[in-house]
Predict the structure.
Amino acid sequence: MSHADELSITPVPAFRDNYLWLLSRDGRAAIVDPGDAAPVQRALAERQLKLEAILVTHHHADHVGGLDALQSAGATVYGPRREDIDGIDIRLSSGDRIEVLGVSFSVIDVPGHTAGHIAYFAEVLEPPAVFCGDTLFACGCGRLFEGTPMQMLASLDRLAALPAATRVYCAHEYTLANIRFALAVESDNADLQRRAREATAMRARGEPTIPSTIALELATNPFMRADTPGVRAAAVARAGSAAGTDRVRTFAAIRAWKDDFR
Ligand SMILES: [Zn+2]
């Protein structure tokens, strides 16, 4: 693959803390979760790109609000099979594969935040990349609006099984707040302490903390660490001994704790 052919992946900031991920190659573009059309249209114009595809992970307004305006230019819209979203051309669920800008993406069902949430995984990229919407965040996970702790934990397990080097492109810059909570759970996790310093410095420079990697999430994200003694002990200390009897209960206790954490 020559340099000119390489896929570039750029965040388009929107609203207060959303990242709409712009994929481009050779004048062609795709956008992931366009909650707002205007910043995407500006980015396309600046870079002289033609929008060919829109990838949607779930139905929330800050992920689909720009569909109408962007679709009118003729882009193909991909989205979850199990969610009711206007304007989806091709509905997808686990096992489906699509080709966008010459890159093959496999679809992974990741219910929990919403009932039909999907992620898009490009194994052929070096390093591989996953676009996971509001399921796995940097050092956190999405709220359980439509799913159970068991469903969300199974979804995170699917993402945890991806290659360790996989870049994790989530949809929000929540990292510092997530790290503050993670430190309340695992104050003595040295990898987490290092991540806190690095992420704080990145934000101070005005840089996105995204993408992270699956390896970094496995080392520092309490929602990916329900099996570790430290996270289990913290869940028990917070919610009582039942929270330590199995990993789903541990995960549920940590998720409920985060919901109340300020
Ligand atoms: Zn959402």
